[in-house]
Write a structure and sequence with these properties.
Layout (H helix, E strand, L loop, with lengths): L1 H18 L54 E7 L4 E6 L3 E2 L3 E3 L5 E5 L2 E4 L13 E4 L4 E4 L5 E4 L4 E5 L6 E5 H5 L12 E5 L21 E2 L7 E2 L9 E9 L4 E3 L2 E2 L3 E4 L6 E8 L6 E4 L4 E8 L4 E6 L3 E10 L9 E7 L15 E11 L11 E5 L1 E11 L6 E4 L18 E8 L5 E4 L4 H9 L20 H5 L34 E2 L10 E2 L7
Parallel strand pairs: 2-5, 3-6, 4-7, 5-8, 6-9, 7-10, 8-11, 9-12, 10-15, 11-15, 12-18, 15-19, 18-20, 19-21, 20-22, 21-23, 22-24, 23-25, 24-26, 25-27, 26-28, 27-29, 28-30, 31-32
Antiparallel strand pairs: 1-2, 13-14, 16-17
Protein name: Lipoprotein
Keywords: Signal
Length: 528
Amino acid sequence: MAKINRIHTILMASCACVGLSACGADDIASPGEGTIVIPAPTPTPTPTPTPTPTPTGVTPAANCPTIAGAVQLSDLGTISDGGNTWRNCGFPTRFTSSTAIAKVAGVIYSLPGRVDVGTDQGAASTNTDVTLTIDPGVTIFAATGNAYLAVNRGNKINAVGTASQPIVFTSRENVLGTATDQSSGQWGGVVLLGRAKITDCLAPAAAPGTTACERDTEGSSGALYGGANDADNSGRMSYVQIRYSGFALAGGSELQGLTPSGVGTGTVIDHIQVHNSSDDGIEAFGGNAHFKYLVLTGNEDDNFDSDVGYRGTVQYVISAQRANNDIGDGFLETDSNGGSAANNGEDALPRQYLKMANFTYIHRSTTGSNGSAMLLRGGADLALVNGIIVAPTNSCLRIDSTTTTRDADTALEDAGKPRYISVAMQCNGTPYKGSRGVDAAAVQSIFEAGANSTISYTPSLTSLFINGATETARTAIDPKTIDSAFNTTNYIGAVRDSSDTWYAGWTCNSVTANFGSTSKDCTAIPTT
């Protein structure tokens, strides 16, 4: 061990000599001889602070907002899609006073089940009790089951979004991020209950079109509608999406995306998208509301259905059956099929009369029970103007019952045979169908009597629904010659050309139809 230590000492001394360049005594400074300079150490750089991460998704609000009135929102905790988390603020089961639902960062609203706006004021009432206002950009969802919003007679909804901030009604699954382009039937929908005239009264002895004539909403109970005021006002709905609705409440009875029932002309309904309803997109039960700017995508029954004496107008409609799924019935079901009682027979008054202008419909299903893109039956009148029907795999037009095809009769409020004016259709090899005393030849003659109408149509539509050269070349008429509630147009179809973008921004995109980059995906909840 001593030998090893000695060798170690010699090596250390040798290294020291090398470090000083020479080992002579004259080269070693003694203490006090000159100044030994020790280099200052290089300062340690100040560390760069780690930045605080910026949240990439929605973060929940601390609490639910306070609303006007005695009933308040319920704080139901939070709900998340994995990237965004919202404070879940539950509606009361009934709004008992007028209030507003505000767009608040980090807040989403929910329906605990059926939610009523006010209480039914009765068929003969003239007042407005409760108004529910919903601000632009608000999202409201409902869980699976008997969950829907009912605006009762004598009350109003004021749900007015904007082109960039639509109001969205949707399902819990959509909020959780599990809804897909094929999802449907995940909650009820929106029901408007008015005091306008209807037929098919609940009371067998009640006279249609009077305050004694009222009905309960399909698939529901205690949701009454009907009266004698055709100017009734149930409020306004504009720039609204209704997604994944249509829950089955009973055998054969389902709620639609939007169910206007006994709704009068004082009500404003425009810029509405109903997406992937498991039943109809919109079903109008009586009343005489006017609709404008509708987008009906992926719905499983009819896109626009009208019953029990509906008399109104519909203008600007983009309608497409769901893609990648052979499902859906048709574009229109227009009927007053009637029963055996005097107040629900096919000639009960007011007589149904649907007038529709500027529509484009894309039919994809081969399984619909109507057997055609459009079904007209019972004591119903119809006028279709400036329209496009693309149904290469199906019949286009079916008419059932001679009460639909007879000549005009003033006493029965019968406008006469249905009219198809400036309507271009692409159909399969059997374009016309009829039953109950109406044969296919009669249906053909009725269609061909309409000016500028054809089934020899080959579409040149772009982006599914935008008019191309073929559509632009078709002759249109002024819809105002049919009804003063229409706007004047000089083109067929819903969308005149690529510069006509009334559908953009407030709609949502899916595999069924894409409305451009300003519209977001139907499977995602808006976060701005």
